[in-house]
Amino acid sequence: MTETGTARAGDPERGTLDKAAGENFPVAPFFLPKDWRTDLMAVYGFARLVDDIGDGDLAPGGADAELLGVSPEEAEDRLILLDAFEADLNRVFSGEPRHPLLRRLRPTVRRRALTPEPFLGLIAANRQDQLVTRYETYDDLLAYCELSANPVGRLVLAVTGTSTPERIRLSDAICTALQIVEHLQDVAEDLGRDRIYLPAEDMKRFHVQEADLATKTAGASVRALVAYEAQRARELLNEGAPLVGSVHGRLKLLLAGFVAGGRAAIRAIAAAEYDVLPGPPKPGRIQLLREVGVTLRGKG
Question: What share of the chain is helix, strand, coil (3-state, %, to 5)?
């Protein structure tokens, strides 16, 4: 078991928050005001735990299930765990939650006047992952991203007190793009979970079969498909990038980091000649910093 896994088994809250260090970009970087960092980490803890439930990545020992009131006999059923997690989320808004990560979230919800909808969206996305493993069209995938990704950006805007309808629209474009990029990086890993987030209509267009995604390296058709989806993500990032220029100060740097992280990841995928099957292409720190500078200048 990894060190994080050991921590998670003994301390579900600490183990989940430790995963923040492994994200593509800082969840709550040091340059943000302390109260923002506290609240963003509380939101992150929620999002990380619900993803771990949906992916079956909870630490052995059943501590999370026990905290949520799920019996050992039912602890392997992800839908039951998600239902229990949703019930505990409801207690954040009208009672005393059981799980320490949700108890951590409660003061953030009150301080920032957060609503249940974005949290419920993230739970719904993970519930959908248990029931839907293929997406026929790009629009179907966008509808999934509306649940799985866009709520995160909306929560960042809410925590920082900067939500407006236009900023939400731009944030949604960025978050959907980042979700698509993550799917492209994780094609092989997702297939191992019997999930494919490449739209079936696009696979047909590029003459890609599911078996082509199970090889050690990508053939020309798979590379062309990945390049096509990467371009879609790039266009979404460009569409959402004006969000960065609409805010000021340290929030501007945070949002630039999100956009830059997506752009740098796409460049890494392109540098790998769109062969994502050996493992997720990751950008280096220098490339990421370069993209941050470009984004802050309103270019890209």
Answer: 70, 0, 30
Assessment of whether the complete model's pTM goes beyond 0.85:
yes
pLDDT at 2: 41
Q: Extract the tokens encoding 131.
A: 């029931």
What letter represents residue 47's amino acid? Answer: A
Residue 2 in contact with residue 19, Cβ under 8 Å? no
Instruction: Quote the pLDDT of residue 60.
Output: 82
How far is 108 from 161, CA to CA, in rounded Å? 12
CA dist 67 and 49 (Å) reads 13
pLDDT of residue 293: 93
Q: Measured between alpha carbons, how far is 116 from 119 in angstroms, rounded to an integer?
A: 5
pLDDT of residue 178: 97
For residues 279 and 188, the answer to whether their CB atoms sit within 8 Å is yes
At 135, list the tokens: 């997406």
Angle at 228 between CA 233 and CA 263, to 5 degrees: 35
Distance of alpha carbon 119 from alpha carbon 102, whole angstroms: 11
For residue 25, count CB atoms less than 10 angstroms from its CB and return exposed for 0-12, middle for 13-18, buried for 19 or more. middle
- For residue 213, the 8-state DSSP code is G
CA 243, CA 295: separation in Å to the nearest integer?
A: 11
Shortest CA distance to 252 belongs to which of 297, 290, 296?
296
Helices (H) and strands (E) in the chain, counts: 16, 0
Q: 130-153 as b/e, with b when 16 or more CB fall inside 10 Å? A: eeeeebeeeeebbebbbbbbbbbb
pLDDT of the residue at 283: 93
Q: What does the alpha-carbon distance between residue 13 and residue 99 come to, in Å, rounded to a whole number?
A: 8
Q: Which parts of the chain have pLDDT scores under 70?
A: 1-12, 15-17, 19-27, 300
Helix (H) or strand (E) holding 251: helix 249-271
Distance separating alpha carbons of residues 41 and 43, to the nearest angstrom: 5
Cα(231)–Cα(237) distance, rounded to whole angstroms?
Answer: 10
